[in-house]
Amino acid sequence: MGTTQKFTRWTWPLTAAVTIVVGVWTLTAQQAASNPQTIVDNAYKQFQTLKEGKNADYIPALAKVDPNLFGIALITVDGKVYTAGDVKTQVSIQSISKVFTMAQVIQEQGLESVEKRIGVDATGARFNSIIAVEAIRTVVGAGAPEMNPLVNPGAIATTSMVLGASADEAWNRILGFHSAAAGRQLFILADVYKSESDTNQRNQAIGALMLAYGYIKHNWQQAVDLYTRQCSIGVNARDLAVMAATLAFGGRNPVTGSHVIDASRVPGVLAVMATAGLYDDSGKWLYHTGLPAKSGVGGGIIAVSPAKFGIAVVSPPLDIAGNSVRAQYAIAAISNALGGNPFAPTVASL
Ligand code: DON
């Protein structure tokens, strides 16, 4: 369970000094209880033995990933890193990439570009729609865009919007953007890319439909391929936490210092994560944590406590909605212990 400390703008040294004056034993215990590393370690221990959920297997390569893989990383906006478990083994980023391709298009073309072409709604249904009870979030009509960039139709169309004169140019931009957010050069996991390319007929059908309805302007095959590549990018829990912390820090990577997304565009990205990041369970997740988040079927979840921290957990077994079971438990426990819920502002104990 490693801890890497960077800048310490927050108050550990001061707290330690007060401890000596006021009473060593009492405050030391309190300090330990609110120490982010202790909280991360405790969550790791608490959920390490949890065996709920099952690896995704509709992409054959994902079924082969070790279900015991479990890593937690928390990164504050001033660059402190707290980890537990395996934060080095890579999994495919999968749908978490949708956040960063959405952010990239918003960065390149403005907040309105995605809102007008794709939509930023949680569902495509009217407030009193009866049919939506059956057809919820598969409505891809010819009317006003009422999707969002975090579900497959909207995500594939969003990927098609990334600028680039050729597929290679667009791909280099996508990989470059993800790498800047993660703070290191990322690469595709070739086995996952091949496995998903061989079995993604459903996404191909969605791509063709999105062209037919005008959400994709040309070459749906290229859009689906780029989308499949972005989903196959390899990341570990630490990478994902840096990416989440970049969003928490107003678009600047708190570890490398590089500017990735304009601060004025980050709230739009977080809003879509809050409404749609965990699919069917987005509302339940928000109710319990208040955190904009995004899951991937590779087993990762990122979550953002704006202006405080980004957190990520990798654990492949998923629940029925397609969200990592242990990641949900661990992130909720850690964030709630740290006062991370933006709807319940308290003095952060970090
Ligand atoms: O398109 C797919 O099915 C996958 N590449 C991504 C799905 C995914 O990650 C959904 N996440 N919870």
- What ligands are attached or bound here? 6-diazenyl-5-OXO-L-norleucine
Assembly state (oligomeric): single chain
Please state the structural category.
Answer: alpha+beta
The percent of residues in helical segments reads: 40-55%
Unreliable stretches, pLDDT < 50, 5 or more residues?
Answer: 1-27, 131-144
Largest sheet: 6 strands, antiparallel
How many helices?
16
SSE series: EHHHHEEEHHHHHHHHEHHHEEEH
In short:
The protein contains 16 helices and 8 strands. With 350 residues, the protein is of the alpha+beta class.
Short descriptors:
alpha+beta; 16 helices; six-stranded antiparallel beta sheet; 350 residues; binds 6-diazenyl-5-OXO-L-norleucine; globular; disordered N terminus; two-stranded antiparallel sheet
